[in-house]
Amino acid sequence: MAFITQAEWGRKHNYSRQYVNKLVNNGIIRLHNGKIDEEEADMAIAAVRQPMKASKNDSLTDLNNLSTVLLKTRIKSELEKVKYLEIKNKEAEKSLVSADGVRIAAFNKGRMVRDALLNIPDRVASMLAKETDTNRIHEILTKEIRQIIEEILDSG
Question: Which of 20, 59, 115, 120 has the maximum number of C-beta atoms within 10 A of its C-beta?
Fold first, then answer.
């Protein structure tokens, strides 16, 4: 257990003072009365550089942690697969449709409604021109609008 200064340890391993200070501040290397335990620091650096290689004391703990992480990752992956398959199943059953398909259908239906409403004056202008009774004019317009609405509803 040789305790040396941060600068000595950094020079020994060809690290800059800033890098050694960063390792100390991040808690990778621990200080003991302002000095570094050389063996402990070397093991800490080795563990950081090669996380799959565990130290002799921590091999069982790290192995358990690794298996736990792998198990959690696998569970998460399986859940994502289930969600994906549910979506594909709903698409196949036609109970789930794409948002783009809905937008296109709504746009086309809106265009059909607009065109039908814009054609009303052309169809009824001659009939309304000879009418003087406001009730009769109202009746003609109402009939035309209802007819358009029924045609749109019947077209699906």
Answer: 20
pLDDT in tens, 91-119: 788 777 778 888 999 999 999 889 998 99
Query: Does residue 85 carry a pLDDT above 60?
Result: yes
Q: Which of these, 127, 111, 121, 110, lies nearest to 145 by C-alpha position?
A: 121
Euclidean distance between CA atoms 141 and 139, whole angstroms? 6
Any idea which residue has 């501040």 for tokens?
A: 25
Contact between residue 60 and residue 77 where contact means Cβ atoms under 8 Å apart: no
Q: What are the distances in angstroms from CA 19 to CA 7, 10, 22, 111, 128?
A: 10, 8, 5, 66, 90
What is the rounded average pLDDT of the residues 136-146?
Answer: 92
Q: What pLDDT is recorded for position 2?
A: 81
Q: What is the 3-state secondary structure (H, E, C) of 88-131?
A: HHHHHHCCCCCHHHHHHHHHHHHHHHHHHHHCHHHHHHHHHHCC
pLDDT averaged over every residue in the chain: 85
Q: In what helix (H) or strand (E) does residue 142 lie, and over which residues does it extend?
A: helix 134-154
- Neighbour order of strands in the sheet with 35-37: 3-4, 35-37, 31-32
